[in-house]
């Protein structure tokens, strides 16, 4: 987990995403830092590990980070990218700013931001949302993990960068657990928290 520290009344920006480790967000963190925002980039259990983690594992990890901030009296904004939309939405249960205030507690999630992220209905999963998720030219599945093709991923994910730079960034994206595919959303946080 990467964190930059700022001492302001601004909410903390919390970022989970798939195939993403904190260094991939360094430019984002630097930009937010210049505006006095503390940023926490979460390394999900499903990313780059040796054990296949589930969506529930990821949601629990996100919730533990948000809970830690809330228990320090800090407000946060959850900025979710790609698959991160599902465990992020699930993980804020009980930690909205309104929920916390109703219990006379400080801190909590003020808003949800979905950046090219999956926003699914309760009962839906990654597998039920993306038909044919699995082996393609862009994604290779081996056992419990999927790997991105860095050349194709560079063209999709980093399309605004020069080719060589895009490919260098894409090559840094680790594998992701296929066990996340079946995790169904049970808590539609977007109905209760500002988006």
Automatic annotation (TrEMBL):
Gene3D superfamilies the record matches: alpha/beta hydrolase
InterPro entries linked: AB_hydrolase_1, AB_hydrolase_fold, Sec-Metab_Biosynth_Hydrolase
Ranges for domain AB hydrolase-1: 13-190
Domain of life: Eukaryota
Protein name: AB hydrolase-1 domain-containing protein
């Amino acid at each position: 987990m990467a964190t930059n520290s700022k001492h302001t009344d601004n909410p903390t920006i919390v970022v989970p995403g798939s195939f993403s480790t904190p260094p991939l967000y360094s430019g984002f963190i630097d930009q937010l830092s210049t505006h006095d925002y503390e940023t926490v980039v979460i390394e999900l259990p499903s990313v780059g590990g040796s054990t296949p983690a589930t969506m529930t594992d990821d949601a629990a990890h996100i919730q533990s980070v948000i809970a830690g901030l809330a228990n320090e009296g800090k407000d946060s904004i959850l900025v979710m990218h790609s698959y991160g939309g599902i465990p992020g939405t699930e993980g804020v249960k009980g930690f909205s700013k309104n929920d916390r205030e109703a219990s006379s507690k400080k801190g909590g999630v003020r808003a949800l931001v979905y950046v090219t992220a999956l926003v699914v209905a309760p009962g839906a999963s990654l597998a039920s949302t993306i038909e044919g998720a699995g082996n393609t030219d862009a994604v290779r599945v081996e056992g419990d993990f999927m790997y991105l093709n860095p050349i194709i991923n560079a063209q999709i994910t980093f399309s605004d960068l020069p080719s060589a730079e895009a490919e260098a960034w894409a090559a840094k994206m680790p594998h992701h657990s296929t066990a996340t595919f079946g995790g169904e959303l049970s808590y539609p946080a977007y109905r209760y928290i500002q988006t």
